[in-house]
Design brief:
Elements (H helix, E strand, L loop, with lengths): L11 E2 L2 H11 L6 E5 L7 H6 L3 E5 L3 H10 L4 E3 L8 H5 L4 E6 L5 H9 L5 E9 H8 L9 H9 E9 L4 E2 L6 E8 L8 H12 L6 H4 L6 H6 L13 H15 L1
Parallel strand pairs: 2-3, 2-5, 3-4, 5-6
Antiparallel strand pairs: 1-8, 6-9, 7-9
Helix pairs in contact: 6-7, 8-11
């Protein structure tokens, strides 16, 4: 059996109770198109495969991929770095349900990639570091609220389902984990993606400054006032609506 590899951030889920709870939360059924990222030793893969859903798995580790093929004959396996996978090619004619125990070292980067696929994704269930989940669901004017909170909540309904302690894994990680459910919003605030990313990076790289100072190179104070945003607020005080409005105004100014 393949040993965990630190360079891939591997921590294998071994607690049967938690495994069952995750599968029940996903609730796969015939007709679903599931993509499992980082199946590892297949803790939930067998249950997903047995559900009648169409299942594809993405596993970067060649040895683990080989073991999975032996353990679950006929499995559709992509032995590739998930950051290089084009999910639009996997979707075909159906929307995707994406699940996985995401490597902590690439989790935020991967989430931004997946969120960019929009309507191609039906929903997502992920095991993530608790701190990341708390940032995803954080409300304005809290310490955890930031770039990930805004990007996630503009695109998705985000819900923390339950926490998973370190003893549920082998080897034990040094951090607490949690399961999060993300469902793309059917109705979204209007915003401009590229401009929003620019605003968020600028704002939260200087989160202790006022937005007057943090965004002065993008949106002068008079522009903020015109958007009904107090220039004396800090970035963490701005709402989703505020950031969406900033993105649209920045787009207009840079056209």
């Amino acid at each position: 059996m393949t040993a965990p590899r630190k360079r891939f951030g591997q921590n294998f889920l071994v607690d049967e109770g938690i495994i069952g709870r995750i599968v029940r939360a996903i609730a796969p059924v015939t007709g679903d198109h599931l993509i499992e990222i980082g199946p590892g030793r297949g803790a939930i893969t067998r249950a997903l495969a047995d559900s009648g859903a169409e299942l594809q798995v993405v596993e970067i580790d060649r040895d683990l991929a080989f073991e999975l093929k032996l353990a679950i004959p006929g499995i559709r396996l992509i032995n590739e770095d998930v950051m290089k996978v084009d999910f639009s090619e996997l979707a075909g004619e159906s929307s995707l349900r994406v699940v996985g125990n995401l490597p902590y070292n690439i989790s935020t980067q991967l989430l931004f990639k997946l969120l960019s696929y929009g309507d191609l994704i039906q929903d997502m269930h992920f095991m993530l570091q608790l701190e990341v989940v708390d940032r995803m669901i954080a409300e304005p004017s809290t310490r955890a609220y930031g770039r990930l909170s805004v990007m996630t909540q503009l695109l998705c309904e985000a819900e923390k389902l339950f926490e998973v302690p370190p003893e549920c894994f082998y080897p034990r990680p040094k951090v607490q984990s949690a399961i999060v459910h993300l469902a793309p919003r059917s109705e979204r605030l209007e915003f401009h993606q590229a401009s929003l990313e620019t605003v968020l990076i600028q704002a939260f790289s200087a989160r202790r400054k006022t937005v007057r100072n943090a965004l002065k190179n993008l949106l002068p104070a008079d522009e903020l006032v015109a958007l009904d945003i107090d220039p004396g607020l800090r970035p963490e005080n701005l709402t989703l609506e505020d950031f969406a409005a900033c993105s649209l105004r920045l787009k207009e100014l840079t056209q």
